[in-house]
Amino acid sequence: MAAHRAQWKGFIKFGEVSCGVSLYTAASTSGRIAFNTINQDTGNRVRREFVDSETGKTVPKEQQVKGFQVENGQYIELDSEEVAAAVPEANKMLDIRAFIDCHSIDDVYFDKPYYLTPSDRISQEAFVLLRDGMRREKVAAIARTVLFRRVRTVLIRPHGKGLIATTLNYDYEVRSSKAAFEDIPTIKIDGEMLQLANHIIGTKIGTFDPASFDDRYEEAVAELVKAKTEGRSLPRKKEVKVSQPNDLLAALRESAGVQAAAAPDKPKRTAANANTGRQKAARKSTAKSVVAIPQRKAS
Amino acid sequence: MAHPYWKGYLKLSLVTCPVAMTPATSESEKVRFHTLNKETGNRVVSEYVDAISGKPVSEEAEAKGYARGENDYVILTDADLDTVALESTRTIDIEVFAPRDSIQWVYLEKPHYLTPNETVGQEAYSVIRDAMAASKVVGVSRLVIGRRERAVILEPRGDGIVLWTLRYGDEVRPEESYFDSIDGEAETEMMPLVQKLIKQRKKEWSPAMVEDPVQESLLAMIAEKKKALKPAKKGKPAPSPATQPGSNIINIMDTLRRSIEANGSSGKRA
After folding, report:
1. Which domain holds residue B94?
2. What is the pTM of this model?
3. Which chain A residues are Cβ-neighbours of B196 within 8 angstroms?
4. Under DSSP, is residue A82 helix (H, G, I), strand (E, B) or coil?
5. Is ipTM beyond 0.90?
6. Which CATH number is A8-27+87-173's, of 3.20.20.10, 3.40.50.300, 2.40.290.10, 3.40.120.10?
7. Does A98 sit within 8 Å of B201, measured CB to CB?
8. Of the four listed, A189, B84, B113, B165, which is most buried by Cβ atoms within 10 Å?
Protein backbone atom coordinates (compact mmCIF):
# COMPACT_ATOMS: atom_id res chain seq x y z
CA MET A 1 0.00 0.00 0.00
CA ALA A 2 1.24 3.44 -0.85
CA ALA A 3 2.45 5.35 2.16
CA HIS A 4 0.43 8.39 3.14
CA ARG A 5 2.07 11.74 3.39
CA ALA A 6 2.19 13.04 6.95
CA GLN A 7 0.87 16.58 7.50
CA TRP A 8 3.09 17.00 10.51
CA LYS A 9 5.72 15.01 12.38
CA GLY A 10 6.72 15.50 15.95
CA PHE A 11 6.53 14.01 19.40
CA ILE A 12 3.84 13.35 21.90
CA LYS A 13 4.82 13.77 25.54
CA PHE A 14 3.05 12.53 28.62
CA GLY A 15 4.87 13.00 31.87
CA GLU A 16 8.51 12.44 30.98
CA VAL A 17 7.70 9.83 28.35
CA SER A 18 7.69 10.82 24.73
CA CYS A 19 7.35 9.11 21.40
CA GLY A 20 7.50 10.11 17.78
CA VAL A 21 4.18 10.57 16.03
CA SER A 22 2.92 11.42 12.57
CA LEU A 23 -0.24 13.36 11.91
CA TYR A 24 -2.44 12.71 8.87
CA THR A 25 -5.56 14.46 7.61
CA ALA A 26 -8.52 12.22 8.49
CA ALA A 27 -11.17 14.13 6.60
CA SER A 28 -11.03 16.52 3.71
CA THR A 29 -13.66 18.57 1.95
CA SER A 30 -11.48 19.35 -1.03
CA GLY A 31 -13.53 17.14 -3.31
CA ARG A 32 -16.69 19.17 -2.97
CA ILE A 33 -17.93 20.88 -6.07
CA ALA A 34 -19.15 24.42 -5.85
CA PHE A 35 -21.64 26.18 -8.02
CA ASN A 36 -20.16 28.52 -10.55
CA THR A 37 -20.84 32.20 -10.36
CA ILE A 38 -21.82 33.48 -13.78
CA ASN A 39 -22.05 36.93 -15.30
CA GLN A 40 -25.70 36.99 -16.30
CA ASP A 41 -25.10 39.58 -19.01
CA THR A 42 -22.51 37.57 -20.92
CA GLY A 43 -23.06 34.03 -19.66
CA ASN A 44 -19.37 33.78 -18.82
CA ARG A 45 -17.90 32.64 -15.54
CA VAL A 46 -16.48 35.24 -13.21
CA ARG A 47 -13.23 35.27 -11.27
CA ARG A 48 -12.07 37.17 -8.25
CA GLU A 49 -9.59 39.98 -8.50
CA PHE A 50 -8.03 42.11 -5.77
CA VAL A 51 -8.22 45.81 -6.46
CA ASP A 52 -7.43 49.06 -4.67
CA SER A 53 -10.67 50.40 -3.24
CA GLU A 54 -9.83 53.96 -4.31
CA THR A 55 -7.99 53.61 -7.61
CA GLY A 56 -9.72 50.41 -8.72
CA LYS A 57 -6.41 49.08 -9.97
CA THR A 58 -5.34 45.49 -9.45
CA VAL A 59 -3.02 45.03 -6.45
CA PRO A 60 -0.41 42.32 -6.89
CA LYS A 61 0.11 39.86 -4.02
CA GLU A 62 3.51 41.24 -2.98
CA GLN A 63 2.00 44.69 -2.61
CA GLN A 64 -0.68 43.49 -0.17
CA VAL A 65 -0.10 44.03 3.52
CA LYS A 66 -2.20 43.33 6.61
CA GLY A 67 -3.83 46.22 8.40
CA PHE A 68 -5.74 46.38 11.64
CA GLN A 69 -8.40 49.07 11.75
CA VAL A 70 -8.38 51.33 14.80
CA GLU A 71 -11.14 53.64 16.03
CA ASN A 72 -10.55 56.63 13.78
CA GLY A 73 -10.63 54.50 10.63
CA GLN A 74 -6.86 54.47 10.41
CA TYR A 75 -4.90 51.30 9.93
CA ILE A 76 -2.01 49.85 11.80
CA GLU A 77 0.06 47.87 9.36
CA LEU A 78 1.69 44.60 10.21
CA ASP A 79 3.96 42.94 7.74
CA SER A 80 4.10 39.19 7.37
CA GLU A 81 7.31 38.96 9.43
CA GLU A 82 5.68 40.70 12.35
CA VAL A 83 2.67 38.43 12.18
CA ALA A 84 4.97 35.42 12.03
CA ALA A 85 6.85 36.66 15.11
CA ALA A 86 3.66 36.37 17.15
CA VAL A 87 3.70 32.62 16.67
CA PRO A 88 6.06 30.84 19.05
CA GLU A 89 8.79 28.73 17.61
CA ALA A 90 7.56 25.29 16.61
CA ASN A 91 9.06 22.78 19.01
CA LYS A 92 7.32 19.81 17.40
CA MET A 93 6.07 18.69 20.77
CA LEU A 94 2.51 17.71 21.54
CA ASP A 95 2.80 18.16 25.27
CA ILE A 96 -0.14 16.65 27.13
CA ARG A 97 -1.31 19.23 29.64
CA ALA A 98 -4.27 17.36 31.07
CA PHE A 99 -6.51 14.35 30.74
CA ILE A 100 -10.24 14.91 30.78
CA ASP A 101 -13.17 12.54 31.15
CA CYS A 102 -14.56 11.55 27.75
CA HIS A 103 -18.12 12.34 28.76
CA SER A 104 -17.29 15.87 29.96
CA ILE A 105 -15.86 17.03 26.63
CA ASP A 106 -17.75 19.89 25.03
CA ASP A 107 -17.73 18.72 21.43
CA VAL A 108 -18.91 22.03 19.95
CA TYR A 109 -15.22 23.02 20.09
CA PHE A 110 -14.28 20.29 17.59
CA ASP A 111 -12.60 21.50 14.45
CA LYS A 112 -10.77 18.98 12.24
CA PRO A 113 -9.77 15.38 12.90
CA TYR A 114 -6.32 13.94 12.21
CA TYR A 115 -5.04 10.40 12.50
CA LEU A 116 -2.03 10.04 14.80
CA THR A 117 0.32 7.12 14.39
CA PRO A 118 3.72 6.19 15.88
CA SER A 119 6.29 7.49 13.46
CA ASP A 120 8.66 4.56 13.86
CA ARG A 121 8.94 1.12 15.39
CA ILE A 122 10.69 2.32 18.51
CA SER A 123 7.89 4.78 19.28
CA GLN A 124 5.26 2.11 19.10
CA GLU A 125 5.56 0.84 22.66
CA ALA A 126 4.99 4.19 24.33
CA PHE A 127 2.25 5.03 21.82
CA VAL A 128 0.33 1.85 22.54
CA LEU A 129 0.78 2.37 26.26
CA LEU A 130 -0.73 5.86 26.12
CA ARG A 131 -3.56 4.68 23.89
CA ASP A 132 -4.53 1.75 26.10
CA GLY A 133 -4.11 3.71 29.33
CA MET A 134 -6.46 6.43 28.07
CA ARG A 135 -8.92 3.82 26.90
CA ARG A 136 -8.98 2.14 30.30
CA GLU A 137 -9.40 5.42 32.14
CA LYS A 138 -12.01 6.63 29.61
CA VAL A 139 -10.19 9.91 29.11
CA ALA A 140 -8.97 12.07 26.26
CA ALA A 141 -5.81 14.17 26.39
CA ILE A 142 -5.47 17.89 25.87
CA ALA A 143 -2.24 18.93 24.20
CA ARG A 144 -0.96 22.06 22.58
CA THR A 145 1.55 22.71 19.86
CA VAL A 146 2.33 24.90 16.89
CA LEU A 147 0.47 23.38 13.98
CA PHE A 148 0.31 24.94 10.53
CA ARG A 149 1.68 28.24 11.89
CA ARG A 150 -0.87 28.61 14.66
CA VAL A 151 -0.82 27.55 18.29
CA ARG A 152 -3.46 24.86 18.35
CA THR A 153 -5.01 22.91 21.19
CA VAL A 154 -5.84 19.36 20.20
CA LEU A 155 -7.91 16.68 21.83
CA ILE A 156 -6.33 13.26 21.53
CA ARG A 157 -8.29 10.08 22.07
CA PRO A 158 -7.95 6.39 21.27
CA HIS A 159 -9.58 5.24 18.05
CA GLY A 160 -9.21 1.61 17.04
CA LYS A 161 -5.52 0.78 16.90
CA GLY A 162 -4.53 4.41 16.66
CA LEU A 163 -5.23 7.85 18.05
CA ILE A 164 -7.27 10.70 16.65
CA ALA A 165 -6.18 14.25 17.33
CA THR A 166 -8.97 16.78 16.82
CA THR A 167 -8.01 20.44 16.61
CA LEU A 168 -10.20 22.55 18.88
CA ASN A 169 -11.64 25.94 18.04
CA TYR A 170 -10.44 28.85 20.17
CA ASP A 171 -12.53 30.05 23.09
CA TYR A 172 -13.52 33.24 21.25
CA GLU A 173 -14.75 31.25 18.26
CA VAL A 174 -17.39 29.25 20.12
CA ARG A 175 -20.68 30.49 21.50
CA SER A 176 -21.77 28.68 24.61
CA SER A 177 -24.84 26.46 24.35
CA LYS A 178 -26.06 27.95 27.62
CA ALA A 179 -26.23 31.42 26.12
CA ALA A 180 -27.79 30.13 22.90
CA PHE A 181 -30.50 28.26 24.76
CA GLU A 182 -31.25 30.69 27.58
CA ASP A 183 -34.36 32.06 25.87
CA ILE A 184 -35.98 28.66 25.53
CA PRO A 185 -38.67 28.45 28.20
CA THR A 186 -38.73 25.39 30.41
CA ILE A 187 -41.97 23.61 29.65
CA LYS A 188 -43.13 20.72 31.76
CA ILE A 189 -43.99 18.01 29.27
CA ASP A 190 -47.13 16.02 29.86
CA GLY A 191 -46.35 12.38 30.73
CA GLU A 192 -48.47 10.94 27.97
CA MET A 193 -46.93 13.20 25.35
CA LEU A 194 -43.46 12.09 26.34
CA GLN A 195 -44.52 8.47 26.35
CA LEU A 196 -46.01 8.81 22.87
CA ALA A 197 -42.92 10.58 21.57
CA ASN A 198 -40.72 7.86 23.06
CA HIS A 199 -42.85 5.29 21.31
CA ILE A 200 -42.52 7.09 17.97
CA ILE A 201 -38.77 7.20 18.45
CA GLY A 202 -38.83 3.48 19.23
CA THR A 203 -40.40 2.75 15.86
CA LYS A 204 -37.67 4.74 14.13
CA ILE A 205 -34.66 3.34 15.96
CA GLY A 206 -32.01 2.28 13.54
CA THR A 207 -28.44 2.76 12.58
CA PHE A 208 -26.96 5.41 10.38
CA ASP A 209 -23.98 4.91 8.16
CA PRO A 210 -22.75 8.28 6.90
CA ALA A 211 -21.05 6.44 4.03
CA SER A 212 -24.45 5.47 2.63
CA PHE A 213 -25.77 9.03 2.54
CA ASP A 214 -26.32 10.61 -0.85
CA ASP A 215 -26.61 14.29 -1.61
CA ARG A 216 -29.82 14.60 -3.67
CA TYR A 217 -29.46 18.34 -4.24
CA GLU A 218 -27.63 18.22 -7.52
CA GLU A 219 -30.15 15.78 -8.93
CA ALA A 220 -33.01 18.00 -7.78
CA VAL A 221 -31.34 20.99 -9.42
CA ALA A 222 -30.89 18.99 -12.63
CA GLU A 223 -34.65 18.41 -12.60
CA LEU A 224 -35.14 22.12 -12.16
CA VAL A 225 -32.79 22.91 -15.03
CA LYS A 226 -34.69 20.49 -17.24
CA ALA A 227 -37.99 22.08 -16.33
CA LYS A 228 -36.57 25.51 -17.01
CA THR A 229 -35.04 24.66 -20.39
CA GLU A 230 -38.26 22.96 -21.45
CA GLY A 231 -40.16 26.05 -20.47
CA ARG A 232 -42.26 24.23 -17.90
CA SER A 233 -43.47 26.25 -14.95
CA LEU A 234 -41.74 25.48 -11.69
CA PRO A 235 -43.92 23.88 -9.04
CA ARG A 236 -44.77 26.01 -6.05
CA LYS A 237 -44.13 24.64 -2.64
CA LYS A 238 -46.92 23.68 -0.32
CA GLU A 239 -47.32 25.56 2.92
CA VAL A 240 -45.89 23.77 5.92
CA LYS A 241 -48.56 23.06 8.51
CA VAL A 242 -47.28 23.77 11.99
CA SER A 243 -48.73 21.75 14.87
CA GLN A 244 -50.82 23.95 17.14
CA PRO A 245 -50.39 23.48 20.88
CA ASN A 246 -54.02 22.28 21.18
CA ASP A 247 -53.48 19.64 18.52
CA LEU A 248 -50.10 18.46 19.72
CA LEU A 249 -51.37 15.52 21.78
CA ALA A 250 -53.66 14.41 18.95
CA ALA A 251 -50.79 14.65 16.43
CA LEU A 252 -48.58 12.57 18.71
CA ARG A 253 -51.31 9.96 19.16
CA GLU A 254 -51.88 9.76 15.45
CA SER A 255 -48.16 9.49 14.80
CA ALA A 256 -47.87 6.71 17.33
CA GLY A 257 -50.78 4.90 15.72
CA VAL A 258 -52.95 5.21 18.78
CA GLN A 259 -56.68 5.09 17.93
CA ALA A 260 -58.33 8.38 18.70
CA ALA A 261 -61.34 6.46 20.01
CA ALA A 262 -59.23 4.70 22.63
CA ALA A 263 -58.07 8.00 23.99
CA PRO A 264 -60.81 10.45 24.82
CA ASP A 265 -59.68 13.93 24.12
CA LYS A 266 -59.17 15.15 27.62
CA PRO A 267 -57.23 18.30 28.32
CA LYS A 268 -53.68 18.03 29.52
CA ARG A 269 -52.89 15.58 32.23
CA THR A 270 -50.26 16.12 34.78
CA ALA A 271 -47.06 14.19 34.31
CA ALA A 272 -48.40 11.18 36.16
CA ASN A 273 -46.07 8.30 36.54
CA ALA A 274 -47.43 5.28 34.71
CA ASN A 275 -46.72 3.10 37.71
CA THR A 276 -48.76 5.02 40.22
CA GLY A 277 -52.27 3.92 41.04
CA ARG A 278 -53.74 7.25 40.05
CA GLN A 279 -54.45 6.13 36.53
CA LYS A 280 -57.95 6.35 35.26
CA ALA A 281 -59.40 3.63 33.09
CA ALA A 282 -59.19 5.76 30.01
CA ARG A 283 -55.57 6.50 30.65
CA LYS A 284 -54.82 2.82 31.15
CA SER A 285 -56.20 1.90 27.77
CA THR A 286 -54.04 4.53 26.16
CA ALA A 287 -51.00 3.51 28.09
CA LYS A 288 -51.46 -0.13 27.15
CA SER A 289 -51.39 0.55 23.45
CA VAL A 290 -48.18 2.46 23.89
CA VAL A 291 -45.51 -0.15 23.62
CA ALA A 292 -42.50 0.46 25.76
CA ILE A 293 -39.52 1.02 23.58
CA PRO A 294 -36.33 -0.90 24.26
CA GLN A 295 -33.93 1.44 25.98
CA ARG A 296 -30.81 0.96 23.98
CA LYS A 297 -27.88 2.04 25.99
CA ALA A 298 -24.99 3.44 24.09
CA SER A 299 -22.12 1.20 24.94
CA MET B 1 -28.94 37.10 20.16
CA ALA B 2 -27.14 36.12 17.04
CA HIS B 3 -28.95 36.57 13.77
CA PRO B 4 -30.46 33.23 12.70
CA TYR B 5 -28.67 31.68 9.82
CA TRP B 6 -31.47 29.36 8.79
CA LYS B 7 -35.16 29.21 9.58
CA GLY B 8 -37.41 26.28 8.90
CA TYR B 9 -39.24 23.42 10.52
CA LEU B 10 -38.46 20.47 12.73
CA LYS B 11 -40.62 17.45 12.11
CA LEU B 12 -41.19 14.19 13.89
CA SER B 13 -43.83 12.09 12.16
CA LEU B 14 -46.97 14.28 12.21
CA VAL B 15 -45.57 16.86 14.62
CA THR B 16 -44.07 19.98 13.03
CA CYS B 17 -42.67 23.09 14.72
CA PRO B 18 -40.89 26.23 13.48
CA VAL B 19 -37.20 26.40 14.36
CA ALA B 20 -34.23 28.69 13.86
CA MET B 21 -30.60 27.69 13.57
CA THR B 22 -27.33 29.52 14.20
CA PRO B 23 -23.77 28.18 13.93
CA ALA B 24 -22.16 27.44 17.29
CA THR B 25 -18.88 28.80 16.02
CA SER B 26 -18.11 32.22 14.64
CA GLU B 27 -15.10 34.15 13.46
CA SER B 28 -16.42 37.49 14.61
CA GLU B 29 -14.20 37.72 17.69
CA LYS B 30 -11.06 36.88 15.81
CA VAL B 31 -8.49 39.61 15.31
CA ARG B 32 -9.48 40.76 11.88
CA PHE B 33 -7.07 42.19 9.43
CA HIS B 34 -7.92 44.02 6.31
CA THR B 35 -5.71 43.79 3.31
CA LEU B 36 -4.11 47.09 2.36
CA ASN B 37 -2.27 48.27 -0.71
CA LYS B 38 1.23 48.94 0.59
CA GLU B 39 1.80 51.71 -1.93
CA THR B 40 -1.35 53.74 -1.47
CA GLY B 41 -2.41 52.66 2.03
CA ASN B 42 -5.91 52.05 0.69
CA ARG B 43 -7.91 48.95 1.37
CA VAL B 44 -7.78 46.10 -1.08
CA VAL B 45 -11.17 44.71 -1.98
CA SER B 46 -12.07 41.67 -3.98
CA GLU B 47 -14.14 42.15 -7.06
CA TYR B 48 -15.69 39.80 -9.57
CA VAL B 49 -14.59 40.24 -13.12
CA ASP B 50 -15.81 38.49 -16.24
CA ALA B 51 -13.48 35.58 -16.94
CA ILE B 52 -13.41 36.34 -20.65
CA SER B 53 -13.67 40.13 -20.96
CA GLY B 54 -11.93 40.92 -17.64
CA LYS B 55 -14.49 43.63 -16.98
CA PRO B 56 -15.96 44.11 -13.51
CA VAL B 57 -19.29 42.36 -12.95
CA SER B 58 -21.94 44.20 -10.97
CA GLU B 59 -23.54 42.39 -8.08
CA GLU B 60 -26.91 42.32 -9.82
CA ALA B 61 -25.41 40.55 -12.82
CA GLU B 62 -23.98 37.76 -10.68
CA ALA B 63 -25.95 34.54 -10.78
CA LYS B 64 -25.49 30.89 -9.94
CA GLY B 65 -24.82 28.74 -12.95
CA TYR B 66 -25.35 25.06 -13.44
CA ALA B 67 -22.87 23.60 -15.90
CA ARG B 68 -24.63 22.00 -18.85
CA GLY B 69 -21.56 21.66 -20.97
CA GLU B 70 -18.23 23.27 -21.68
CA ASN B 71 -18.66 26.98 -20.89
CA ASP B 72 -22.42 26.52 -21.15
CA TYR B 73 -24.39 27.31 -18.03
CA VAL B 74 -28.03 27.32 -17.14
CA ILE B 75 -28.58 30.28 -14.87
CA LEU B 76 -30.70 29.74 -11.81
CA THR B 77 -31.96 32.60 -9.68
CA ASP B 78 -32.44 32.35 -5.94
CA ALA B 79 -36.18 32.21 -6.57
CA ASP B 80 -35.66 29.24 -8.89
CA LEU B 81 -33.50 27.45 -6.37
CA ASP B 82 -36.16 27.94 -3.73
CA THR B 83 -38.42 25.69 -5.72
CA VAL B 84 -36.04 22.74 -5.66
CA ALA B 85 -38.24 19.74 -4.99
CA LEU B 86 -36.61 18.66 -1.74
CA GLU B 87 -38.38 18.85 1.60
CA SER B 88 -34.98 19.15 3.24
CA THR B 89 -34.58 22.75 2.03
CA ARG B 90 -36.85 23.85 4.85
CA THR B 91 -37.87 20.88 6.95
CA ILE B 92 -35.66 18.77 9.19
CA ASP B 93 -37.70 15.58 9.14
CA ILE B 94 -36.21 13.10 11.59
CA GLU B 95 -36.17 9.79 9.79
CA VAL B 96 -34.05 7.65 12.08
CA PHE B 97 -32.88 7.70 15.68
CA ALA B 98 -29.60 6.12 16.68
CA PRO B 99 -27.48 5.82 19.81
CA ARG B 100 -25.15 8.81 20.03
CA ASP B 101 -22.04 6.64 20.23
CA SER B 102 -22.93 4.92 16.98
CA ILE B 103 -22.05 8.11 15.08
CA GLN B 104 -18.28 8.40 15.06
CA TRP B 105 -16.70 11.68 16.03
CA VAL B 106 -14.73 11.93 12.79
CA TYR B 107 -18.01 12.50 10.95
CA LEU B 108 -18.99 15.58 12.99
CA GLU B 109 -18.32 18.62 10.85
CA LYS B 110 -19.96 21.77 12.10
CA PRO B 111 -22.16 22.36 15.17
CA HIS B 112 -25.24 24.58 15.16
CA TYR B 113 -27.75 25.54 17.80
CA LEU B 114 -31.36 24.77 16.95
CA THR B 115 -34.02 26.70 18.87
CA PRO B 116 -37.81 27.07 18.68
CA ASN B 117 -38.61 30.03 16.46
CA GLU B 118 -42.13 30.89 17.52
CA THR B 119 -44.07 30.47 20.72
CA VAL B 120 -46.45 28.11 18.94
CA GLY B 121 -43.71 25.51 18.52
CA GLN B 122 -42.11 25.59 21.94
CA GLU B 123 -44.01 22.65 23.37
CA ALA B 124 -43.57 20.41 20.33
CA TYR B 125 -39.85 21.27 20.31
CA SER B 126 -39.60 20.39 23.98
CA VAL B 127 -41.37 17.06 23.48
CA ILE B 128 -38.98 16.03 20.68
CA ARG B 129 -35.94 17.15 22.69
CA ASP B 130 -37.01 15.44 25.91
CA ALA B 131 -37.99 12.20 24.20
CA MET B 132 -34.58 12.00 22.51
CA ALA B 133 -32.91 12.59 25.87
CA ALA B 134 -35.10 9.98 27.59
CA SER B 135 -34.43 7.42 24.86
CA LYS B 136 -30.71 8.28 24.88
CA VAL B 137 -30.61 8.74 21.11
CA VAL B 138 -29.82 11.36 18.51
CA GLY B 139 -32.05 12.10 15.54
CA VAL B 140 -30.72 11.64 12.01
CA SER B 141 -32.04 13.77 9.18
CA ARG B 142 -31.22 15.70 6.01
CA LEU B 143 -30.90 19.41 5.50
CA VAL B 144 -29.97 21.57 2.53
CA ILE B 145 -27.30 24.09 3.55
CA GLY B 146 -25.15 26.06 1.13
CA ARG B 147 -26.65 24.39 -1.95
CA ARG B 148 -25.86 20.89 -0.79
CA GLU B 149 -27.91 18.34 1.01
CA ARG B 150 -26.24 17.33 4.23
CA ALA B 151 -26.71 14.48 6.65
CA VAL B 152 -27.33 16.00 10.08
CA ILE B 153 -27.75 14.70 13.59
CA LEU B 154 -29.77 16.34 16.33
CA GLU B 155 -28.62 15.97 19.89
CA PRO B 156 -30.51 17.21 22.96
CA ARG B 157 -28.36 19.40 25.18
CA GLY B 158 -29.69 21.20 28.23
CA ASP B 159 -32.71 23.22 27.16
CA GLY B 160 -31.83 23.03 23.50
CA ILE B 161 -30.78 20.88 20.56
CA VAL B 162 -27.36 20.83 18.92
CA LEU B 163 -27.46 20.10 15.20
CA TRP B 164 -24.29 18.73 13.61
CA THR B 165 -23.71 18.57 9.89
CA LEU B 166 -21.89 15.34 9.09
CA ARG B 167 -19.09 14.83 6.64
CA TYR B 168 -19.85 12.80 3.55
CA GLY B 169 -18.76 9.17 3.63
CA ASP B 170 -16.08 9.58 1.01
CA GLU B 171 -14.54 12.55 2.85
CA VAL B 172 -13.39 10.50 5.82
CA ARG B 173 -10.29 8.59 4.93
CA PRO B 174 -10.26 4.88 5.75
CA GLU B 175 -8.55 4.52 9.11
CA GLU B 176 -7.28 0.99 8.39
CA SER B 177 -4.71 2.23 5.92
CA TYR B 178 -3.22 4.42 8.64
CA PHE B 179 -3.61 2.25 11.72
CA ASP B 180 -3.16 -1.28 10.42
CA SER B 181 0.56 -1.40 10.94
CA ILE B 182 0.33 -0.47 14.62
CA ASP B 183 1.04 -3.67 16.49
CA GLY B 184 0.84 -4.93 19.98
CA GLU B 185 -0.80 -4.03 23.18
CA ALA B 186 0.49 -2.22 26.20
CA GLU B 187 2.59 -4.24 28.59
CA THR B 188 0.42 -5.19 31.51
CA GLU B 189 3.02 -4.33 34.14
CA MET B 190 3.24 -0.77 32.87
CA MET B 191 -0.49 -0.23 32.74
CA PRO B 192 -0.94 0.63 36.45
CA LEU B 193 1.75 3.27 36.13
CA VAL B 194 0.16 4.90 33.12
CA GLN B 195 -3.22 4.84 34.76
CA LYS B 196 -1.75 6.46 37.84
CA LEU B 197 -0.10 9.15 35.73
CA ILE B 198 -3.38 9.82 33.94
CA LYS B 199 -5.27 10.09 37.22
CA GLN B 200 -2.71 12.55 38.59
CA ARG B 201 -3.08 14.82 35.59
CA LYS B 202 -6.81 14.68 35.26
CA LYS B 203 -8.59 18.02 35.03
CA GLU B 204 -12.03 19.35 34.38
CA TRP B 205 -12.63 20.62 30.88
CA SER B 206 -12.41 24.40 30.70
CA PRO B 207 -12.54 26.87 27.80
CA ALA B 208 -9.27 28.26 29.20
CA MET B 209 -7.67 25.21 27.57
CA VAL B 210 -8.40 26.71 24.16
CA GLU B 211 -7.04 30.20 24.58
CA ASP B 212 -5.11 31.61 21.67
CA PRO B 213 -1.74 33.03 22.73
CA VAL B 214 -1.06 34.26 19.20
CA GLN B 215 -4.18 36.38 19.12
CA GLU B 216 -3.18 37.84 22.46
CA SER B 217 0.29 38.75 21.29
CA LEU B 218 -1.06 40.21 18.06
CA LEU B 219 -3.40 42.42 20.06
CA ALA B 220 -0.50 43.44 22.31
CA MET B 221 1.58 44.23 19.25
CA ILE B 222 -1.19 46.37 17.81
CA ALA B 223 -1.66 48.22 21.10
CA GLU B 224 2.05 48.88 21.25
CA LYS B 225 2.12 50.24 17.72
CA LYS B 226 -0.84 52.42 18.44
CA LYS B 227 0.85 53.94 21.49
CA ALA B 228 4.25 54.54 20.00
CA LEU B 229 4.04 55.34 16.36
CA LYS B 230 7.48 53.89 15.85
CA PRO B 231 7.77 50.27 14.76
CA ALA B 232 7.60 47.82 17.64
CA LYS B 233 10.56 45.64 18.42
CA LYS B 234 10.07 42.13 17.31
CA GLY B 235 9.74 39.93 20.36
CA LYS B 236 12.13 37.06 20.39
CA PRO B 237 10.20 33.85 20.89
CA ALA B 238 10.79 32.38 24.29
CA PRO B 239 13.26 29.53 24.13
CA SER B 240 11.52 26.23 24.55
CA PRO B 241 12.68 23.96 27.32
CA ALA B 242 15.39 21.78 25.90
CA THR B 243 14.05 18.29 25.73
CA GLN B 244 15.52 15.45 23.89
CA PRO B 245 12.52 13.71 22.44
CA GLY B 246 12.89 10.15 21.47
CA SER B 247 16.00 9.54 23.53
CA ASN B 248 14.15 8.65 26.69
CA ILE B 249 11.93 5.89 25.54
CA ILE B 250 14.43 3.15 26.28
CA ASN B 251 13.15 2.68 29.73
CA ILE B 252 9.58 3.81 29.72
CA MET B 253 8.94 2.16 33.04
CA ASP B 254 11.56 4.26 34.86
CA THR B 255 10.43 7.38 33.16
CA LEU B 256 6.84 6.79 34.12
CA ARG B 257 7.89 6.32 37.73
CA ARG B 258 9.85 9.56 37.63
CA SER B 259 6.89 11.38 36.10
CA ILE B 260 4.61 10.22 38.84
CA GLU B 261 7.10 11.14 41.57
CA ALA B 262 7.78 14.52 40.01
CA ASN B 263 4.12 15.29 39.93
CA GLY B 264 3.61 14.15 43.50
CA SER B 265 6.40 16.32 44.89
CA SER B 266 5.30 19.46 43.08
CA GLY B 267 2.14 19.36 45.08
CA LYS B 268 -1.38 18.93 43.87
CA ARG B 269 -2.99 21.83 42.17
CA ALA B 270 -6.70 22.08 41.83
Report:
1. 6-26+83-169
2. 0.80
3. none
4. helix
5. no
6. 2.40.290.10
7. yes
8. B113
